[in-house]
Specification:
Belongs to the ABC-4 integral membrane protein family. InterPro entries: ABC3_permease_C, MacB_PCD, Macrolide_Exporter_MacB. Keywords: Cell membrane, Membrane, Transmembrane, Transmembrane helix. This is ABC transporter permease. The protein is α+β, with helices and mostly antiparallel strands and about 425 residues long. It has two domains: about 190 residues, no CATH class; about 210 residues, no CATH class. It is built from 14 helices and 14 strands. Strand 4 and strand 5 form a beta hairpin. Helix 2 packs antiparallel against helix 10, helix 2 packs across helix 12 and helix 12 runs antiparallel to helix 13. The chain is elongated, with a radius of gyration of 34 Å. The two termini are about 35 Å apart.
């Protein structure tokens, strides 16, 4: 039941010494402020890193052939081998749970230098022979034209999709790109589209705009690759982890190319899902640190409130004695002290939440006016559930802070209290 007299008494008790009350409240305010800011900063860092992955299929791995390190069935170690296009079908048939298996070939990068020419302009760029599915594994925004399709694959069309960086290097500012021709290692390819990448989980984003994609079949024909596959991009479906499936994929490759079952060095791979999981684990640890540090700071503020309430009870010993002599029950005294403690804790905590929310709002406003696509920090925020949990913590903390002073208050005998000067 609401009692105006009780609340008047609480306000009077807390305002009788403004400076002491403000210092006490600051401890809780600062604790909840630090907790919310740390959680928001951690979320902002997480958003920035995940933004770097964009829409990339993170449940993927990349696999390539390496030198054989163990002799097997009369074949020597140190020999080299290549993946074949038939390996792609074998993997699809023998390893259930896979969504996409994309064979790839590459000029440039670790595959060797390449030369791309258009008119008087030339440049060295990475050129990939790919299937249409690669755009699902390494998403890109098609800024004009289209991407490679299966008609291009079946008809072995010599067409190319170029990055905005290639366009800037080979074309004049207002020059038409679509329908023009570029010469890759002496072979003409018609440009059918341009793209731009926002992020791909790491690496130099500028260099990722300087890539060229052509149909896998046309690439193999133009550059005499036959049925050789340089490497593969493999993605598992939503019900499976590529990390769990990759050993079965390796077994298929080892069987088809007569590799020793224990020769783990013969098949190179980069497990994107494993790396992504490690990053997620890092953010879980950061959230734990934020909760731990924020709770410790908040606890110090709660201890401060408890100490101040002990002092307040000591100062009001005579008053408590009078109230007890007039018939006030122990629960009435205890409730008064607990209510004062909870009120001070919640008010100071809410101010801390409001201040931290204002800071987060200002930071987001600043970031809204910036290009965060290449930043490691974006949209710092705190879930409303965290705020509700913080409020619950404040209520519980207020009870705990006032419990000891309240118990001390009801232990005071009316006669002893009335003797206190």
């Amino acid at each position: 039941m609401f009692s105006r007299d009780r609340w008047d008494e609480i306000i009077e008790a807390l305002t009788s010494n403004w400076f002491r009350t403000l210092l006490t409240a600051f401890g809780v305010l600062w604790g909840i402020f630090i907790l919310v800011i740390l959680l928001a900063a951690g979320k902002g860092l997480e958003n920035g890193v995940k933004q770097g992955f964009g829409d990339m299929a993170t449940n993927s791995m990349f696999m390539w052939s390496r030198t054989v390190s163990k002799s097997y069935k009369g074949l020597p170690k140190g020999r080299e081998y290549n993946f074949k296009t038939s390996d792609v079908e074998a993997i699809k048939q023998n390893v259930p749970g896979l969504s996409i298996v994309s064979p790839r070939n590459q000029l440039g990068g670790f595959g060797g230098a390449n030369n791309v020419v258009r008119g008087l302009n030339s440049g060295a760029y990475n050129v990939y022979g790919d299937y249409p599915e690669i755009i699902k594994q390494q998403p890109m925004d098609i800024t004009s034209g289209r991407f490679v399709n299966y008609s291009d694959i079946q008809e072995k069309r010599k067409v190319a999709v170029i990055g905005e960086g290639v366009k800037d290097g080979l074309y004049d500012l207002d020059e038409e790109v679509l329908g023009s021709y570029i010469k890759i290692n002496g072979v003409n390819f018609m440009v059918i589209g341009t793209y731009k990448k926002k992020g791909s989980g790491g690496g130099d984003i500028e260099e990722q705009q300087k890539e060229i994609y052509v149909p896998f079949s046309a690439y193999s024909q133009a550059f005499n690759m036959g049925d050789v596959v340089g490497w593969m991009a493999i993605t598992a479906d939503d019900d499976h982890s590529i990390t769990e499936l990759k050993s079965r994929i390796f077994d298929v490759i080892k069987t088809r190319h007569t590799l020793h079952p224990d020769d783990d060095r013969a098949v190179g791979n980069f497990d994107l899902y494993e790396e992504y999981s490690r990053i997620n684990g890092l953010f879980v640890a950061l959230r734990f640190v934020a909760y731990f540090v924020g709770t410790l700071v908040l606890l110090s503020g709660i201890i401060g409130i408890s100490n101040i309430m002990l002092i307040v009870v000591k100062e009001r010993t005579n008053e408590i004695g009078v109230r007890r002599a007039l018939g006030a029950s122990p629960w009435n005294i205890r409730g008064q002290i607990l209510l004062e403690s909870i009120f001070l804790t919640i008010v100071s905590g809410m101010v801390g939440i409001i201040l931290s929310t204002i800071i987060i709002f200002i930071i987001n406003k600043i970031l809204d006016g910036m290009d965060t696509s290449e930043m490691m920090f974006a949209n710092p925020s705190v879930n409303i559930g965290i705020v509700l949990i913080a409020l619950a913590i404040l209520v519980i903390s207020g009870l705990l802070a006032g419990l000891i002073p309240a118990q001390n208050a009801i232990k005071i005998k009316p006669v002893d209290a009335l003797r206190t000067e």
